[in-house]
Each structure stands twice: as C-alpha cells, then as structure tokens.
Amino acid sequence: MGYLNANGRSRFRETIRELEASRGCHWLSNEGHMVIDQEDGSNVVPEVDPQRILGRFLLTHNGRPVAITGPHGQSLEWL
C-alpha cells in the first residue's frame, strides 16, 4: 500500500471489501501513517488519533483498527 497513491489505495480497499463479501476473505494490514493519511487530508481510520500512530504502524483487520504496532513488530498495543 505504501507504493500506491491515494486513488490506488482506495481501489485496493474496495477490491478487498468485494472479496470479503463474496468469498469471506480477511484482510490484515499493518501500515504507517502515510498510508492511513490521505492526500485530501482525510484519514481512512478516523477513530484513531493520527498523532498516536506517528513512528508506529496501525494493524487493521478488514479495515477495523485492532492494534498499534512497532514498524518491525517490536511492540504491540491492542486497541
């Protein structure tokens, strides 16, 4: 996701939602704030304060935040 622009990330999230609905798949994502913060200033996970993520990653399951993690797995803070 870090290599895609905001439009590409949006298309990816939509594809995953369709796969989840049609095939019951699960999407685990562990991304930094540059993926969560969008080009238009919005945030794809508004329920988590962006300042809380700086320097760390947000672990989500099917788009729902579940933990804040260290970039290389050195820490885990369940939400």
- The chain-level structural class is alpha+beta
End-to-end gap? 22 Å
- Number of domain modules: 1
Rounded to the nearest angstrom, the radius of gyration is 12 Å
Major pleated sheet: 4 strands, antiparallel
Beta-strand residue fraction: 15-25%
Give me the count of strands.
Answer: 4
Shape: globular
Mean pLDDT: 82
Provide an overview of this structure.
With 79 residues, this protein is α+β, with helices and mostly antiparallel strands. It has one domain (6-78). 33% of the residues lie in helices and 23% in strands. It is built from 3 helices and 4 strands. The chain has helices spanning 6-23, 33-36, 50-53, and strands at 28-31, 57-61, 64-69, 76-78. It has a 4-stranded antiparallel beta sheet. β3 and β4 form a beta hairpin. The longest helix is centred in the N-terminal third of the chain and has 18 residues, at 6-23. It is globular. The chain starts with 5 loop residues before the first helix and ends with a strand.
Short description:
The protein is of the alpha+beta class and 79 residues long. The chain is 33% helix and 23% strand.
What descriptive keywords fit this protein?
alpha+beta; 3 helices; 4 strands; single chain; 79 residues; 4-stranded antiparallel sheet
Strand and helix map with partners:
Elements: H1 6-23, E1 28-31, H2 33-36, H3 50-53, E2 57-61, E3 64-69, E4 76-78
Antiparallel strand pairs: 1-2, 2-3, 3-4
